[in-house]
Design a protein that fits this description.
The protein is mainly alpha-helical. It has one domain. It has 2 helices and no strands. The longest helix is centred in the last third of the chain and has 52 residues. It is rod-shaped.
């Protein structure tokens, strides 16, 4: 079986996944469609996990930047008051 890569957004994958719930199919195609549903659902879960990790990382980086700025401000205040 050949496997190809297609660049899709999370929203596009979600629409494809949802559309598979409403298609008309013959019995012989049921297993194929079910497998496709599982694949798309797995991708959506993986994307959500990846985006969640990125959000946590961005939050941590923001917190570190805030702490660095606070340290700089304290140092400036200390030098000024001397």
């Amino acid at each position: 079986m050949d496997v190809f890569s297609v660049d899709l957004t999370q929203q596009e994958i979600s629409v494809l996944r949802q559309s598979l719930d409403t298609i008309t199919l013959q019995g012989k195609d049921a297993k194929f469609v079910a497998t496709l549903q599982v694949k798309l659902e797995s991708e959506l879960i993986e994307i959500a996990n990846m985006l969640g990790k990125q959000a946590v990382q961005k939050q941590e980086e923001l917190q570190q930047a805030i702490e660095r700025e606070a340290t700089k401000t304290r140092r400036s205040s200390t030098k000024t008051s001397e």
